DNA sequence: ACTTGTGAAACTTTTCACAGCG
DNA sequence: CGCTGTGAAAAGTTTCACAAGT
């Protein structure tokens, strides 16, 4: 019954997270005029192994042709549909600091199915000003016209992030992208993804340190040793 | 032999990725004067389950006290050491567009063990200008003084990203944070982490669409349907 | 002949549940 | 008694290898 041409509820999360990468790779291939691609080639373009790619695509259904490969246009459509990109989703960016500014101006959203529709800040000096073609409003103004399916992007300082999240949830938002370096508490049914820049660097630092340890003592480290008030910790 | 007070090579990747979150939670607790914390409390602050937290910490060694909990200062030091944060790592940001600018000005790096030391761009109009207290240089200038342990942050357009990565690798960098929406090919031993903003939104769109499907047909969708040249696909 | 789609195996990560220790 | 640390079970993810289809 529910066995129509797509996967029955339950595409693994790891697969969902890779679909955007495949989509990007397919867009690149389409742009260069390729119209059929093998799992081997597409996997190469996406930076994964071909078996993984095939397994991932198998969750969406059978869109390949054995002995031939995948039709670039068709596969692109199927993935886009699975991701819900037949709609142009509205995005509200909250917090117009450096990062909020950069996000508002980022052209990569528009080209990939998203429309930045609201820019929000609480600072009265910013409210009313124009950034990237939009007028900055405050949270109250946003709350008067919250569209269903809005995605909220939090780019405030961490101290403000939780209360912004609360207000977004209150107005019916259930997808949030959080750039503030803090944990957000939200009710069930609200999906939060986080991007923490310092965290990413710390993970790299771990690998850097351990790669280094293979090669011998950390003698030639140009990274500056922290030699400051660390005494208070040891005394 | 190699059984000193830390984990023997092989902390799971999933655990490493969470250590920065624990570190942040501990910093928060330390700031409010708490000096002992149970796995339950710390897990709550970090947004994970306590069993997972304890398992993660067990890879670092036994730093808790049964019946009591963990010493906040001690645990913080141990995690920081494991992540290699006893050093201040140098960071070079390549690509001084909107995002590069925002990253250069981001104060969150300095407070978490990283020092943005070089800003790089190829545009002659930018080279020599000052951003966030630093003078913008070009890749050639960076190549003349590449410190060991440098972390490269790529914030260029995707078309330039691969060649920037190649040059970074050439000068001995083996940790790269890539903001450009493309796959980078690098040799073994070079660690690349990527942050793709549109990808994150697409993953949210997937969940948004499927959460919505639970509640019935997509009637009240305020996300604008893409009603353009999609006919060519159906005809 | 060639490439997909997929069971089964291998590996990783999370969760459970309780022994062990302060 | 309470909380950590950890084996063992469960769940999730990746890889293998080949049968099945064109």
UniProtKB/TrEMBL annotation, chains A, B:
<dbReference type="InterPro" id="IPR036291">
    <property type="entry name" value="NAD(P)-bd_dom_sf"/>
</dbReference>
<keyword id="KW-0238">DNA-binding</keyword>
<dbReference type="Pfam" id="PF06971">
    <property type="entry name" value="Put_DNA-bind_N"/>
</dbReference>
<feature type="domain" description="CoA-binding">
    <location>
        <begin position="84"/>
        <end position="183"/>
    </location>
</feature>
<dbReference type="Pfam" id="PF02629">
    <property type="entry name" value="CoA_binding"/>
</dbReference>
<dbReference type="InterPro" id="IPR003781">
    <property type="entry name" value="CoA-bd"/>
</dbReference>
<protein>
    <recommendedName>
        <fullName>Redox-sensing transcriptional repressor Rex</fullName>
    </recommendedName>
</protein>
<keyword id="KW-0678">Repressor</keyword>
<feature type="binding site">
    <location>
        <begin position="95"/>
        <end position="100"/>
    </location>
    <ligand>
        <name>NAD(+)</name>
    </ligand>
</feature>
<feature type="DNA-binding region" description="H-T-H motif">
    <location>
        <begin position="21"/>
        <end position="60"/>
    </location>
</feature>
<comment type="similarity">
    <text>Belongs to the transcriptional regulatory Rex family.</text>
</comment>
<keyword id="KW-0805">Transcription regulation</keyword>
<comment type="subunit">
    <text>Homodimer.</text>
</comment>
<dbReference type="InterPro" id="IPR022876">
    <property type="entry name" value="Tscrpt_rep_Rex"/>
</dbReference>
<dbReference type="InterPro" id="IPR058236">
    <property type="entry name" value="Rex_actinobacterial-type"/>
</dbReference>
<keyword id="KW-0804">Transcription</keyword>
<dbReference type="InterPro" id="IPR036388">
    <property type="entry name" value="WH-like_DNA-bd_sf"/>
</dbReference>
<keyword id="KW-0963">Cytoplasm</keyword>
<dbReference type="InterPro" id="IPR009718">
    <property type="entry name" value="Rex_DNA-bd_C_dom"/>
</dbReference>
<dbReference type="InterPro" id="IPR036390">
    <property type="entry name" value="WH_DNA-bd_sf"/>
</dbReference>
<keyword id="KW-0520">NAD</keyword>
<comment type="function">
    <text>Modulates transcription in response to changes in cellular NADH/NAD(+) redox state.</text>
</comment>
